[in-house]
Fold:
Amino acid sequence: MPDTIEKVSIVISKGSLEGIYPGLIMANGARAEGIEANLFFTFFGLDAIHKARNEHIKLATVGNPGLHFATMAGGLPGVSTAMTHYMNHKMEKLDIPSIPEFIEMIADTGAGLYACKASVDLFGLEKNDFIDQVQDIITVGEFYEKAAGGQIIFT
Amino acid sequence: MSNTTIADSDVELNDEGFFVHPEQWTEDMVPELAHREGIDHITDAHWQVIRFMRSEYLAKGTGPTVRVLGKTSGVSIKELYQLFPKGPAKIAAKIAGIPKPRGCI
Structure:
């Protein structure tokens, strides 16, 4: 094994704000280091590249003990929206791009963006539902072909 | 750390190849530094990024990340990666004789 990382393939499987950002940051950071990167969106992670949905990604305020927030309170109407708004505001101050802008930027770095075929079929979606930067809808086998010779990171 | 001769001057580089003393850098060194990073043809756009990195570092004490470069240098993210495929901020910082920019975005 070489002592440097030359290539990463990052799987984004969750559709929450905190489920999507880490994979995006890792992909963008990889490219900034000159590391080849592929992003593979599966299951609810598809929302990150969904034209109509990726501007409305929310923070999970229920079932998220890291928020230190009562689960009952987190489930009240409007709480997730308000917390998402607060988080987005904090990130904007740190110059962290919004999810749609971040994904566009990552595509511009030359990283590959792919949607998982099984999930696309499951949710009844098609190529048209996704932002233009998505290169293809691929099977898990094709994902492994693209990931060959590099590291795989599942988020 | 190692001492190297670049464009007939002695400079000290760290283990990753960044200048330990940015004041040792001169523009004459750019072609040789770029060549070490696999860039043999330095275009005006390369110079624009290198000079921008240098002036940002001198003004702020730290070099810009790719995100900041894309927003403020006048060169788009796409073009930055075409100019410096091995990482625009990192490679341009090496060539501009400044420390590696720190930042996660």
